[in-house]
Description:
Blueprint: H1 11-39, H2 43-53, E1 59-61, H3 62-68, H4 73-85, E2 89-93, E3 101-105, H5 107-129, H6 134-151
Helix pairs in contact: 1-5, 2-5, 3-4
Amino acid sequence: xxxxxxxxxxxxxxxxxxxxxxxxxxxxxxxxxxxxxxxxxxxxxxxxxxxxxxxxxxxxxxxxxxxxxxxxxxxxxxxxxxxxxxxxxxxxxxxxxxxxxxxxxxxxxxxxxxxxxxxxxxxxxxxxxxxxxxxxxxxxxxxxxxxxxxxxxxxxxxxxx
Length: 161
């Protein structure tokens, strides 16, 4: 085999890759559709508010929130602006270091997360966990960690262990 020859995927690898690709496209769209239909928000908006809801004092630096929500700082900034307009998030300078901006989940934002979470969790359970056995769920977690680590060996991606 020539040193320049690509390592082509086997038939089984190709089937796995196509199944993963389909899931990567369809799952976010399905989750987004449920959240839009039931709560009037996008999946990314929910990720931002849920991330804040699980943080200390429901507050995070925008840069930390961008990593947690798997989005760029620019995208996060636009989304937080929309969430501010709805009264669900507010921004404030970081009192420990004014070079940073904090995103804070407001009481109304907390109420929105609390109202939205049950439907979102039900959809995640229906689409991801219910079709899998416990062993497959553990395998999925391990696979997710391994692929995420291959993408980002520094571990800055959320969920890496």
